[in-house]
Automatic annotation (TrEMBL), chain A:
Regions crossing the membrane: 26-44, 88-117, 138-159, 189-207, 228-247, 259-279, 313-331, 370-392
Membrane topology: Multi-pass membrane protein
Name this polypeptide is given: Amino acid ABC transporter permease
Residues in coiled coil: none
Location of the protein in the cell: Cell inner membrane; Cell membrane
PANTHER family, alphabetized: AMINO-ACID ABC TRANSPORTER PERMEASE PROTEIN YHDX-RELATED, MEMBRANE COMPONENT OF AMINO ACID ABC TRANSPORTER
Entries under Gene3D superfamilies matching the protein: MetI-like
Lineage summary: Bacteria, Pseudomonadati, Pseudomonadota, Alphaproteobacteria, OCS116 cluster
InterPro entries: AA_ABC_transptr_permease_3TM (IPR010065), ArtM/GltK/GlnP/TcyL/YhdX-like (IPR043429), MetI-like (IPR000515), MetI-like_sf (IPR035906)
NCBIfam families reported in the protein's UniProt record: HEQRo_perm_3TM
TrEMBL record, chain B:
Principal localisation: membrane
Membrane topology: Multi-pass membrane protein
Transmembrane region(s): 37-59, 101-120, 127-146, 152-177, 203-222, 234-259, 280-298, 310-330, 342-361, 381-398, 410-428
Domain ABC transmembrane type-1 residues, every copy: 235-429
InterPro entries on file: AA_ABC_transptr_permease_3TM, ArtM/GltK/GlnP/TcyL/YhdX-like, MetI-like, MetI-like_sf
GO terms (BP aspect): amino acid transport
NCBIfam families membership: HEQRo_perm_3TM (TIGR01726)
Compartmental location: Cell inner membrane; Cell membrane
Origin species: OCS116 cluster bacterium
Source superkingdom: Bacteria
Any single GO CC term annotated in Swiss-Prot or TrEMBL for this entry: ATP-binding cassette (ABC) transporter complex
Gene Ontology terms for molecular function: transmembrane transporter activity
Keyword Repressor tagged: no
Protein name according to UniProt: Amino acid ABC transporter permease
């Protein structure tokens, strides 16, 4: 305790080695670093010893070995026995990104829709939306994935009894082998149409910037949506017909026991897509609802007070203020969608985990390298997503002041 | 004109829309043409869904059958619940020996009895009760579930658990009947209520020691047979993994969170790195890491069984999420609290343990419950790496000869089970949140 008779002697003069904060801080840090370093060294030592005693190879040579198994859903050319494990890694990564991409889009659309329904004045509608959210949030995603696969998409009619979803046009066919779609094959001059589309889109963007500036300076409002939409639709259409409709449809045809041609996705893809979308939509709906509710009620009262229409109140006052509260949880939901797409392994959709981390690991060993690569893949994705989130947060903060 | 009257104007009746059913309907369901149409469409959709579910799941369903064929003979359009009913024991207990199932039930009941005083307002000493659950219950339950020969450590912990449980129960009874805590009551009983603190403490210690010795002698006289972990399964296994995962990730998460907020750069960087790595990868990759890499990490000849590998993976994974929850809770504490604690001379651990954590914990409760629910749901992933948890059991029904191909009904049953557990937990946490924040309202 302090020496009260000589108060001025207390500070600084006496250097107590054990009580000095800098010494302690250095000591604790060295101790932590030492402990962690020792643990890592221990694990690495054990691992190398184990690998040696089991005669297992290390290193990334295996990436050039050809993989002997076939993959039924792939976006790059790959033939079993010729393609390498590098190809397998790329196929798995692309498949993960593909399913995540579609699941994110679908779940965001459904989620916003349900989130708005949750706030409906209509009691029944809001309760139905609540039931949707509670049911799908409280059941494990894995059960849902397996259910959609085994309970729904595997029980679809057989190839002979294919369901035509395009009302007889044979452009969209569904059976227990998957969903078959007619796929557009662009002709030689199709680039003109795309160019027209790009020009129209850029024009619409510039036009809307102009309109905003005009409104900021003079308060005059111009209708942006209608002309932009018209330009974006009509210009490419004109180009398309002027170049002689350079687009053909690759239509799936029944050959033997299966459909050939067009594009197709297998039941696992559909099951995973539906399960992920519905599950994450329930979560997104909740954050949308919370975001809209976080806007002070006085805001909408005041907006109506200055005579805005209800639709304008929503689009000009509520939504812009709700977005900063909605977007961060929304983006973290997207990240969870990417991570949860790894449940593909339960139903045989060849994503990076099931293809690379399970099948390849069983074939070639190299546990450390394969697990490490897979984890780094996910880490990179979440890094990219969190960078996007940070940029957004910065922008929002600037606007908010 | 006299505007001021001395009589109070009688209250006008509430508008019809607030009191009558018709008014409520008109306001909430049929306020406009659009709303009416919306309501009717919704009612139609609800009718379609519900009628389909009721017909399939109840009216046309088969509840008693020997095999799946009999279900088909009964009705082709209904559910075959008979398969689920036949497998109920497996779904809940896995392949745990049937004559030993009472041990699992007993373990569950014990936990309920142990925690019961926490909900009774008259009982005193809740913090001690909560601590005793965390410190002692896992060992008693662990021994009940695994059985076999008690080592000296297990004997000691089981005795401690029994002692704690007996004290807890007497304390509850005393609290309910006499409205005091056990120690005060014992002092009154022995006529030492006015004696000095030291005498009282000695008497209590002697009592506890006697109880401990008695419990030790008693527990030495019985044993339960060993059940190897491979026989564990079903909901029991799910709850064991999730339970251990939650209980252990809580302290680990607190340390990681403190590390991440630490002023020491090395500690901060290490904690942050650890947290971010595990938070950015899916649980299934961590589980794969556990089953493929942990055997390599161990010294030669040392083999971890799969259950332990999985539990370690779950703890590491969940601790990182817990750490972020704790960190968010710590951030909600105003800086003045830290400064105040420093001013009255508390050091780092004193500040954290006595001032900050108790306040932060209150903010964290909803998130912690959310995390518990999430972990419980995520635990189903262990079925992918070959443990027969509840989902593993549900999926093996379709491979059982009499019930071949029975997929849908078990999955729906499992979904209902999880829904009941998770939904009631989240409802309870919301209730708790309201109850705890009642004091904050100004």
């Amino acid at each position: 305790m302090s020496d009260q008779s000589e108060p001025q002697k207390r500070p600084k003069e006496k250097f107590d080695f054990f009580q000095d904060q800098r010494v302690r801080s250095v000591f604790y840090q060295v101790m932590t670093a030492g402990l962690v370093g020792w643990l890592l060294l221990y694990l690495v030592n054990n691992t190398t010893e184990n690998l040696q005693s089991r005669g297992m190879a290390t290193g990334f040579d295996f990436m050039d070995i050809s993989a002997g198994f076939s993959v039924d859903f792939k976006m790059i050319d790959y033939v079993a026995g010729i393609g390498t494990y590098t190809d397998i890694f790329i196929i798995g990564a692309l498949n993960t990104l593909l399913i995540s991409f579609f699941a994110i889009i679908l779940s965001t659309i459904i989620g916003f829709f349900v989130g708005v329904l949750r706030l409906s004045d209509n009691w029944l509608v809001s309760k139905v939306a609540l039931a949707y959210v509670e049911i799908f949030r409280n059941v494990p995603l894995l059960i849902q994935v397996v259910f959609w696969y085994i309970g729904v998409f595997s029980l679809l009619p057989a190839v002979k009894k294919t369901v035509d979803l395009s009302f007889g046009a044979e452009r969209l066919l569904l059976n227990n082998r998957g969903l078959y779609m007619a796929w557009p094959v662009p002709g030689d001059l199709f680039w003109v149409t795309i160019l027209a589309f790009v020009i129209a889109a850029v024009g619409a963007f510039i036009y809307s910037r102009r309109a905003h500036k005009l409104q900021d300076s003079s308060g005059e409002q111009t209708n942006v949506w209608l002309p932009s939409l018209a330009a974006i639709i009509i210009l490419p259409l004109i180009a398309f017909f002027a170049t002689g409709m350079p687009l053909e449809w690759d239509i799936p045809v029944l050959e033997g026991f299966n459909f050939v041609g067009g594009a197709s996705v297998a039941p696992p893809f559909l099951a995973l897509l539906v399960a992920l979308s519905i599950y994450h939509a329930a979560h997104i709906a909740e954050s949308v609802r919370a975001g809209i509710l976080s806007v002070n009620r006085g805001q909408s009262d005041a907006a109506m007070g200055i005579g805005l229409k209800p639709s304008k109140v929503m689009s000009l006052v509520i939504i812009p203020q709700a977005m900063p509260a909605i977007v961060p949880p929304l983006i973290s939901n997207w990240m969870n969608t990417v991570k949860n797409s790894s449940l593909a392994i339960a139903i045989g959709y060849p994503d990076i985990v099931s293809l690379f981390m399970q099948t390849s690991l069983n074939q070639v060993g190299h546990a450390v390298e394969i697990v490490g690569m897979t984890m780094i893949f996910y880490m990179l994705i979440s890094l990219i997503i969190s960078v996007i989130l940070n940029i957004y947060n910065k922008r929002v903060q600037l606007v908010e002041r | 004109m006299a505007i001021i009257t001395k009589q109070k104007t009688p209250d006008r009746p509430a508008p019809l829309s607030e009191t009558s059913v018709v008014g409520w309907l008109q306001k909430n369901l049929f306020s406009s043409v659009f709303n009416t149409a919306l309501t009717l469409i919704t009612i139609f959709i609800i009718y379609l869904t519900l009628s389909g579910v009721v017909v399939w799941g109840y009216l046309d369903a088969t509840f008693v059958a020997e095999k799946r064929r009999e279900c088909y003979d009964n009705s082709l359009t209904g559910a075959c619940w008979a398969g689920v009913i036949a497998w109920l024991d497996n779904i809940f207990y896995g392949r745990y020996p049937r004559e030993e199932i009472w041990r699992i039930d007993f373990g569950g009941l014990l936990l309920v009895a142990w925690m019961l005083p926490l909900w009774l307002s008259k009982v005193k000493g809740k913090i001690l009760i909560g601590a005793s659950v965390i410190v002692f219950y896992p060992f008693l339950a662990g021994y009940m579930f695994t059985g076999g020969d008690k080592g000296w450590f297990m004997q000691f912990m089981v005795t401690g658990a029994i002692t704690a449980f007996v004290i807890n129960m007497t304390n509850m009874l005393v609290g309910l009947l006499k409205n005091t805590s056990l120690d005060v009551f014992l002092m009154q009983l022995s006529g030492q209520a006015d004696a000095g603190d030291k005498t009282q403490r000695n008497i209590l210690l002697a009592m506890v020691a006697t109880l401990f010795v008695a419990a030790f002698l008693w527990q030495a006289s019985w044993n339960v047979t060993e059940v190897v972990w491979t026989k564990w399964g079903g909901l029991f296994l799910t709850l064991v993994i999730a339970g251990i995962g939650i209980a252990s990730s809580m302290p680990l998460g607190i340390f990681l969170a403190l590390g991440r907020r630490s002023k020491l750069p090395v500690v901060r960087v290490l904690s942050t790195g650890f947290i971010e790595i595990f938070r950015s990868v899916p649980l299934i990759t961590v589980l794969f890491m556990a089953t493929t890499m942990f055997p390599l990490f161990m010294p030669e000849g040392f083999v971890l069984n799969k259950l332990v590998q999985v539990i370690i993976a779950v703890i590491l994974f969940n601790a990182c999420y817990m750490a972020e929850i704790v960190r968010a809770g710590l951030q909600a504490i105003p800086k003045g609290q830290f400064e105040g604690a420093h001013t009255i001379g508390l050091g780092y651990w004193g500040t954290m343990g006595l001032i900050i954590m108790p306040q932060a914990l209150k903010h964290m409760i909803p998130n912690i419950v959310g995390n518990i629910i999430g972990l419980l749901k995520d635990t189903t992933l262990v079925s992918i790496i070959g443990l027969f948890d509840i989902l593993g059991m549900l999926r093996s029904i379709s491979k059982d000869v009499p019930w071949v191909g029975l997929h849908k009904e078990p999955l729906i049953f499992g979904a209902m089970l999880f829904f009941i557990i998770c939904f009631s937990m989240s409802k309870y946490s919301r209730h708790l949140e309201v109850k705890l924040s009642a004091g904050d309202k100004h």
